[in-house]
Amino acid sequence: xxxxxxRVRTYLRHLVKARxxxxxxxxxxxxxxxxxxxxxxxxxxxxxxxxxxxxxxxSRKRIHVTDLGAGSSxxxxxxxxVGAIARSALKPPRQARLLYRLVRHFRPGTVLELGTxxxxxxxxxxxxxxxxxxxxLEGCPNTLAIARExxxxxxxxxxxAVEGAFSDTLPGILERIGHVDLAFIDGHHDRExxxxxxxxxxxxxxxxxxxxxxxIHWSPGMSQAWARIQEHPRATVTADLYHLGxxxxxxxxxxxxxxxxx
Length: 262
Ligand SMILES: C[S@@+](CC[C@H](N)C(=O)[O-])C[C@H]1O[C@@H](n2cnc3c(N)ncnc32)[C@H](O)[C@@H]1O
Hints:
With 262 residues, this protein is of the alpha/beta class. 45% of the residues lie in helices and 17% in strands. Helix 6 links the parallel strand 3 and strand 4 (133-138). Residues 67-69, 89-91, 115, 117, 120-121, 138-140, 143, 165-166, 186-188 line the site of S-adenosylmethionine (SAM).
């Protein structure tokens, strides 16, 4: 309940305070809004991914879910239908398209996703990143198995899906890939955990890296984590889109933090 009130309050604040591109004086952010953030349109390239989403949403198959994230404290139970997961846990099409456009725009060679779930957003990231690689981490073996099935069915080959708790798998994967060009952090929505993943990914980031945090106002703890991330000296430009937070590490840039709406 506290989380629901927090989301209502922060959303209302966002509606009041967020600026459209005409109220933004940063040429970088203006161009990003104009060319990427506010350019939503149907995407023919993801038609098959959306067909798969609809099939998953209709599925009554029940699976045992291993929840290593903040949801583990919500009493959601350990057995859920695939349909219920597909309807509640995945980025909706509009936000998935936004991620697609971000990846297309920045052309990352290496994309890291924390939280694969059923692999729908992974598929968006991978299609957009081609020929770049997507490394996606997931702690629940049963949801990951469905994600892998889907990626194969969709003919998506540029994904390496890694099973295990982020705390176990993230250090090794970062060591192996060397650097991250774009990270989408969409799992374990907890203050300390989020700040820990931020530090890990930051250590393998460069000035062109884009970090995307999901659900930055999901709870008071997540809003606090977002505020701490914005204070980090390397986070020179940040954009709060309410559901997502974008962090840019651009050097030689005055520190600027934006709340944006299209
Ligand atoms: C919100 S879902 C990801 C949704 C997905 N990115 C999408 O939009 O299609 C978060 C996922 O992260 C996984 N997860 C949460 N905390 C984790 C942790 N500490 N280690 C590994 N996986 C975790 C959960 O099992 C869940 O499947």
